[in-house]
Design a protein that fits this description.
The structure holds two protein chains of two kinds. Chain A is of the alpha+beta class. Helix content of chain A is 51%, strand content 29%. The chains are: A alpha+beta, B mainly beta.
């Protein structure tokens, strides 16, 4: 694989890796007494 | 309350619906969000929380006490309350599988019991959305 191909592969990896990380994606609260 | 919540670390956006009493919180992509802090911040603003649900992605691990936990980050995990859905996750404990679950971290106690916002939050699994 040439250098350009390797660079593209690394770039693609850096884009997709954060999406595979564990995380809290959304929080929903039901509240009372809110005016 | 909205300003109170938006000041918490890891919070990207807060959407409040006055009609149905719903508060939707979108975490930052790269930030760590603490549901217990959100719960406390809401109470501090004079509003009572009836329920707190999360959509989370993490690994199932066995905790030091042998209980099943959902590990979000190396220093953030929630003990999973045993139910029908949690038994299905037992086989994934300490494996590399990442699961996406919808669960309840807090429910206001019934009766006149005063809610304890400092107690550790337990995750009751409501839905297992994905196993990767």
């Amino acid at each position: 694989m040439n250098r350009q191909g390797l660079t593209l592969l690394l770039l693609a990896g850096s884009i997709f890796v954060p999406q595979l990380q564990a995380q809290i994606k959304h929080i929903e609260m039901r509240v009372e007494g809110m005016t | 309350m909205k300003q109170h919540l938006q000041r918490q670390s890891g919070v990207a956006n807060v959407d409040v619906s006055l009609i149905d009493g719903k508060v939707e919180i979108t975490p930052k992509e790269d930030g760590k969000i603490e549901p217990a802090q959100l719960l406390k911040a809401t109470y501090d603003s004079g509003v009572s929380v009836a329920e707190l649900d999360v959509l989370a992605r993490g690994k199932v691990v066995k905790g030091s006490s042998g209980s099943l936990e959902l590990q979000i980050e190396p220093n953030q995990s929630f003990v999973i309350a045993p139910n029908e859905l949690s038994t299905g996750l037992e086989a994934l404990a300490d494996s590399a599988t990442v699961v996406t679950v919808r669960g309840q971290l807090y429910k206001k106690p019934g009766g006149k019991k005063k809610p304890d916002t400092s107690a550790p939050l337990k995750l009751t699994i409501l839905e297992v959305q994905k196993k990767e």
